[in-house]
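Below is how a single chain appears once it has passed through the pipeline. First comes the sequence as given, then the structure the pipeline wrote out for it. We keep one example in the README because the format questions we get most often are answered faster by looking than by reading.
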Amino acid sequence: MRTAILFLILFGGGILFSRALLSQDLPLPAAEVIRQACADASREKKNVFILFHASWCHWCHKMDTAMNDPRVKTYFTDHYIIRYIVVYESKDKEKLENPGARELVTQYNGDNQGIPYWLIFDPGGKLLADSRLRKSQDAEPGMNVGCPASEEEVAYFCRVLKASSGLQPAALLQIRKRFLENGQ
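Resulting structure:
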């Protein structure tokens, strides 16, 4: 009897432990990433910055590096809940993709735009902006600026940040300077 109970405890515990390990390796569905980010944004009175990226993407790494540069990082973290959604991964790393990421990027007109591709939502989940360049507020969207690097791309990025946050001109100037470094 003791042996049977010990076996059940060890075997059952092993199954639970294995499931826990497996579930930690699975990325959240893309829609859940946004849902959780919006809930956090509501509590923290911020907007949501979603960045679609992949491990192989050079410009994705540049975007991440720029946003996390100590000179500008707090400007982003003080105003946005920032979340990453993995999409378009290479064949050997497809397990890193968030389920539903490809459908979500398509839903928000990011398919065929390249990555990084970003979206900004209010806490209620309403889309405020995306990374498709607009010459003016009323203009049709153009191509994805991705990781802003040129003067025009950085100007658009700063306009979007200004419109979707409480960032002051001095902060936007610092962000502008930092992102222009991407083009050097």
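Strands lie at 47-53, 80-86, 117-121, 127-130.

See the next section for the split statistics.
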